[in-house]
Structure formats: structure tokens, C-alpha cells
Amino acid sequence: MMTLPAVEVLRPGSVAEAVELLRDKPGARVLAGGTDIVPNLKYGMYETQHLVALRGLSKELRYVREEDDFVKLGALCSIDQLSREASMLPALADACAQIAGPQLRRMGTLGGNLCLDTRCVYINQTYFWRSALGFCLKKDGTLCHVVKGGKRCVAAASNDTAPVLLALGASVRLVSPRGERILPLRDFYLQDGVHNTVLQSDELLVEVRVPVRARSLKQAFGKLRMRAAIDFPALNLAVALEVAQGAVKSVALCVSAIAARPALIRGLEDLAGRPADARVAEELARRAQKQCKPLTNIGVDPEWRREVLPVLVRRTVSRALQD
Predict the structure, then answer these.
(1) Quick check: helix, strand or coil at residue 196?
(2) Which of 133, 232, 290, 309 has a CA-to-CA distance to 55 between 20 and 30 Å?
(3) pLDDT band at 323 (very low <50, low <70, confident <90, very high)
């Protein structure tokens, strides 16, 4: 039986107090819904003595509203809430409805999902299992067991909301004791499995902003997992197309669960002007497969995931165009 280590739970009454606690308690970690950090603490993945619990900030950080040409989503919106209330962004609502199971969706939060720690078959194990292997780059070791001789951790991003919000051109509002900054979500993630976001240790993600124009985009989310429910993604993706008079004006495609950072497929500008039909879906599938190279960082065969990727892209794009 895995038990939690001894930690002190700090309960701030405001965002300002929360970031001050993060500054004053080196190594402190944020506790929102707890659906990811609690199991990871039991695995011994973190060295921390303090958790900054955000439950008391729900009135400040739990909302869905349109304001200043944005759909604004508070970071403490539960995944379940967004699956029901984010109908103006159907791909996001669909992604949220496919995360984990009902109990976890009620506890998990948008901010927590966006900041979800990366996962790898060699790290999300008990301390005993990892010690028998000699540990790895992400925690306590010096070797990567996925890439021979690798010097950078390639644990995979597993958050389902990220590819959707990236495809929709979202930004995030971050707050620290130094003030706040608004950052495009495409600049939020890093290609580093140890710490795959730009969040500083005393910084908190408090809001997601999606341009109102995203409501008019043809959008869809696709997810591949080994079981029909509960599982983390073996592969996930989102597409957003602007279509006018039957032709593509712009398109964004984001693929994730294959590397530490969700991947926006590059070089799609030349698709503007093409008919919005099955040929566009086929071309997006071809380009995604060319640019994405799944690894053995999760317990699903990478070659199979590579072959399934274009199938999932075609199906997701076709579904977006039908809506």
C-alpha cells in the first residue's frame, strides 16, 4: 500500500496570498483537484514539504464568461463543469468529457490539467520499481531509458485540454508576487519532460483566454486510448478550421501525448483557399504523420501509434467539417 508523505497543507484566501506562499516556501507545490499530484506524491516523485491548496479560491477562479472579446475560463473550473458549460467551444467540452472518469472530472481542474506533469512508463512507478531500474533523468537518475544516450527527458504530455486550446489560439494569465503576465499558450510549453512549462516556482496559472472568434471555427477533438474510459491518452489531437464559402481560410492542428510538449503541426498556411473536404483531411493527416514521431515513453507500441495517427486526424477533421 502506498502512503502519502508528511506534508503541510497551506490554505491561502486569495491569489495574492497563494503566490506569496509559493515564494516563501521553497519547493512548495500547488494542490488544486489533487487527482494527479496525490498519486505522484505516493510514488515518491516529488520532494516537497508544503502544498498550497487552492480550494478556498473557488469564488475568485471558477467562472466561464465572455468579456473583452474573449471567452474567459477560470483556472479552478472543474473538468466536469467545462464539459457541460463550455458548449460555445465544442472541442473543449468534448475533450473534458473524455478525461478520466466522472469522479475525477468533478475534482480535476482546468488549470491542473493544463499544468499536468508529464508521464512516462519509467517514472510513473513506485519508488522500489524505479530504484531497481536505476532511476531516470526525470527523477534521481542520469540515464534516459527511452532514448539511448538521451540528455533530455522525453516524458509525454498527457493533458487533453492543451491541444484543443492550442488549436483555438488561447492564451493564459499567470500571476506571481512580481505581478501578472499574459502568454500565448503556444509559448507556455517547453520540450522538457522534467518541467515542461515556463511557470516559475512562485507563479500561478489563474485564467485561460480564448478569442471569441474561436466560437465560429469548425473544431473537433480526437483521442486514442487503450480503454474506452478512464485512461490517459495514447494519442490526442485537436483541429480548428476557419471555413468560408466552402473553402479553408485558416487551419490549426495540434497533436499531443507523443512528446513533452503538444505539437502544433507546422506549415499549414498553403492550405488556405483549398476546398474544405476530404482531401484537406487527407493532407493534414499526411503532414501530421510526417512531423510526429511517437516514442516508447508510454506503454503503447510507438509504431502502431504512428500508423494510427493519420487515421485519427482524418476522422477528427471530417467530424469538424460535418458540424
Answers:
(1) coil
(2) 232
(3) confident
Handedness of CA 66, 95, 243, 268 (dihedral sign): positive
One domain, residues 170 and 232: no
Grid cell at residue 133: 531500474
Q: How many domains in the chain?
A: 2
> Which residue, 162, 190, 213, sits at the end of a domain?
213
Look at residue 82 and tell me whether its pLDDT is greater than 90: yes
Average pLDDT, the chain: 97
Domain that holds residue 248: 217-322
Residue 229 pLDDT class (50, 70, 90 cuts): confident
Q: Indicate which CATH number applies to the domain containing 253.
A: 3.30.390.50
In a domain, 307, yes or no: yes
If one counts every other C-beta atom within 10 angstroms of the C-beta of residue 215, the result is 15
* Structure confidence by residue, pLDDT tens digits, 169-179: 999 999 999 99
Q: Return d(Cα 137, Cα 150) in angstroms, integer.
A: 9
Q: Are residues 153 and 223 in the same domain?
A: no
pLDDT higher than 90, residue 278:
yes
Task: Look at the block and give the residue holding cell 467562472.
Answer: 63
How many Å is the maximal CA-CA distance in the chain? Answer: 61
Distance CA 224, CA 234 (A): 5
113 — pLDDT class (breaks 50, 70, 90): very high
Q: Which pTM was predicted? A: 0.97
Which residues, listed in sequence order, are joined to residue 210 by a DSSP beta bridge? 71
CATH number (domain holding residue 167): 3.30.465.10
Predicted local distance difference test score (pLDDT) of residue 230: 86
Q: Which residues of 258-287 are buried (b: 16+ CB within 10 A; e: fewer)?
A: bbbbbbbbeebeebeeeebeeebbebbbeb
